[in-house]
Design a protein that fits this description.
By secondary structure, the protein is an alpha+beta fold. The protein is 56% helix and 9% strand. The strands form 3 sheets. The chain has a 6-stranded antiparallel β-sheet. Strands 7-9-10 form a 3-stranded antiparallel β-sheet. Helix 17 packs antiparallel against helix 18 and helix 21 runs antiparallel to helix 22. The longest helix is centred in the C-terminal third of the chain and has 42 residues. The protein is rod-shaped and about 165 Å long. It starts with 58 loop residues before the first helix and ends in a 5-residue tail after the last helix. The N terminus is likely disordered. This is Protein kinase domain-containing protein. It comes from Kineobactrum sediminis. One of its GO terms (molecular function) is ATP binding. InterPro entries: Kinase-like_dom_sf, Prot_kinase_dom, Protein_kinase_ATP_BS, Ser/Thr_kinase_AS.
Length: 622
């Protein structure tokens, strides 16, 4: 099974000689883990956002929901509502590199939903200016579309977490291969050298200098393609770098063994810095040893160290490599292209007449060697023509990567070939257009998902949910015209709910006033009825609960008064029967004091008074 590795932007393993190679990683099935690899470390709560899947029900969206649900069981697995971190693929001075699944690709049922995610370390949280500078350079690196440079997708943050996303590579870092196989054969080393020159030259022509070029930042894919990593910390040449008050070297983004004297002294970066590092890398590939015993150029200069000549190089090649390794900047080729030309000069093709004359002369003199050289040049020309035709065919079928690779091969062989330049320009533009179309389609899918979620929230009369979905659609790039219909419906629903709430509150206030009036008038049944209506409308109403307690207390007091009054009236009746009319009247008046206008007490007073008046008339005066 193929080995799968990735080295992300900002890895800074110290490339100081042989050591134990990393363990091989195995390509995953969708729900498997890498054997022998570390699991993604959980992040502190609150640093990762929650995935909110669309209401769509395709197989891709269902799978994305399942992955998000599974990720939520382990804190820190879901990043930016999109990336499920699965396995740690590498660790360097700048942070961890994860193999991650892109839920947007899962939703789209992409057969390869995996990417690499570089989660930057604590240093960047502690150095805001470092974060800003790196973000600026990462944006530049996103514009580097070259087969020999790793593709950087995005640079983003999720809460306190700063991360980069990039293509996931299969193969091995060059430093690991060197530990296992160095020295390489001359043919392999020069083939890798050509690819590295192509990538660096492409970046330099766009004013991007690597500034930390070393075997640990070079990756060899399983298909044999060499890719340069870590352009996310490259610093722009010229005035833009001079104006920055942040040096990536402060965070370990500088390896002394591949650093020039100028870099060690903190001088502005130049293309020549990368030339020196490239020459060191070539020397290590050819010999298995560092040219200056893994010391920086400054230390090599102080120690007057001289690199030994690799046995496989002829005089011209060694002079060219020595120039690239020169400690003195003025003796070093100023550009990668100049270094490449010095080491591997291009063969020029003569005209037809010159070739014919040369052929006649060679054959007449018996010079078979010259004839063979001519045949080699013809074969090279046929190979160039074949590469150009393949590039055209690939361009016609929109296989821009294929077109770029073949056009670059021709340009590396024949820099002055205009057709390869034209094909390269068309392929790069087509690739950029296709990528933009993909991004636009992805954004449209995201927006549609958010709008559908907002509509579902509306259907359930959930205003806050709908507003949140609209905010996500707006953040994804939705235009006002796309948002307007649902936004208008949300506002209308919000107004309706607010009006309904006001009406309900007014009705509750009215019921409360009626209940209190019933209580004050002593109509407890009426008060209980209003309390029941209030609690039916709002079981948690504190005012209704208070009124119910008041009614219960009033009922209890009323019952007590009636019991007391009944006792006084019974005593009044007893007094009346004993013809103690004054006692009967006194007891009845006591009852009236408790319950004024009590009918039975008033009647008892009238009876006792009448009986008393009648008794006075029957008294004889002697």
């Amino acid at each position: 099974m193929e080995k799968a590795r990735v080295t992300g932007l900002g890895d800074n393993k110290d490339d100081q000689g042989p050591g134990t190679p990393d363990e091989d990683a195995t390509e995953l099935n969708p729900d498997e883990s890498l054997p022998g690899e570390k699991s993604a470390a959980p992040a502190p709560p609150g640093e990762y956002t929650e995935y909110k899947p669309s209401t769509l029900t395709s197989a891709g969206f269902d799978h994305a929901r399942q992955l998000a649900q599974k990720a939520r069981t382990e804190t820190g697995r879901l990043l930016k509502k999109r990336f499920v971190l699965e396995d740690v693929l590498g660790e360097g001075g700048m942070g961890l590199v994860y193999k991650a699944r892109d839920l947007r690709k899962v939703e789209a049922e992409d057969r390869n939903p995996y990417i690499a995610v570089k989660v930057l370390g604590q240093n960047f949280k502690d150095h805001p200016q470092a974060f800003v500078s790196l973000q600026q350079e990462a944006v530049k690196s996103q514009k580097l579309a070259h087969p020999n440079i790793v593709t950087v997708h995005d640079f983003d943050r999720d809460g306190n977490t700063i991360f980069m996303t990039m293509e996931l590579l299969k193969g091995d870092p060059l430093d690991s291969l060197l530990k296992l196989e160095a020295p390489f054969g001359k043919e392999v080393a020069l083939r890798y050298f050509k690819d590295l020159c192509a990538g660096l030259d492409y970046a330099h022509k766009r004013d991007l200098i690597h500034s930390d070029f070393k075997p640990g930042n070079i990756f060899v894919t399983t298909g044999g393609t060499v890719k340069i990593l870590d352009f996310g910390i490259a610093r722009a040449a010229g005035k833009s770098a001079m104006n920055s008050d942040y040096d990536a070297g402060d965070l370990g983004a500088l390896t002394p063994a591949y650093a020039t004297v100028e870099m060690v002294n903190g001088e502005p970066p130049s293309f020549s810095d990368d030339v020196y590092a490239l020459a060191c890398v070539l020397y290590v590939m050819l010999t298995g040893e560092h040219p200056y015993d893994r010391k920086s150029a400054a230390d090599a200069k102080a120690g007057n160290l001289k690199p030994a000549r690799p046995a496989c190089l002829n005089n011209r090649e060694w002079q060219a490599l020595s120039a690239g390794l020169a400690i003195d900047k003025t003796r070093r080729p100023p550009t990668v292209d100049a270094f490449r030309t010095l080491l591997l000069p291009q063969k020029r093709r003569g005209g037809f007449k010159s070739i014919a004359a040369l052929l006649v002369l060679a054959l007449g003199a018996g010079g078979w060697f010259v004839y063979q050289q001519h045949q080699t040049e013809l074969e090279q020309q046929r190979a160039i023509d074949n590469r150009l035709q393949v590039a055209k065919d690939c361009l016609y079928t929109d296989d821009f990567k294929c077109a770029i690779e073949n056009a670059l091969v021709v340009r590396s062989l024949v820099p002055e070939n205009m057709e390869s330049g034209r094909l390269l320009e068309l392929a790069e533009q087509g690739q950029a257009d296709a990528e933009q179309a993909r991004v636009d389609a992805e954004r449209a899918t995201q927006i549609m998902g958010h709008l559908q979620e907002a509509q579902s929230c509306l259907d359930e009369a959930q205003v806050d949910c709908a507003r949140a979905a609209l905010a996500e659609a707006r953040e994804a790039g939705a235009q006002p015209a796309e948002l307007y219909p649902i936004q208008r419906a949300v506002d209308a629903l919000d107004d309706e709910l607010m009006a309904s709430a006001r009406d309900r509150e007014q009705r509750l206030d009215l019921l409360l006033e009626e209940g209190r009036a019933c209580l004050e008038s002593g109509n407890f049944d009426c008060a209980d009825d209003r309390v029941a209506q209030l609690l039916a409308a709002n079981p948690d109403s504190s005012r209704a609960t208070e009124l119910r307690r008041s009614v219960a207390s009033a009922r209890q007091q009323q019952q007590f008064r009636e019991t007391t009054v009944a006792g006084f009236l019974q005593e009044a009746q007893d007094c009346l029967e004993r013809k103690n009319y004054s006692c009967s009247i006194a007891k009845s008046e006591s009852a009236l004091a408790i319950i004024p206008r009590h009918p039975d007490a008033s009647a008892m007073i009238r009876r006792a008074d009448e009986a008393q008046q009648k008794a006075k008339k029957n008294i004889a005066i002697e």
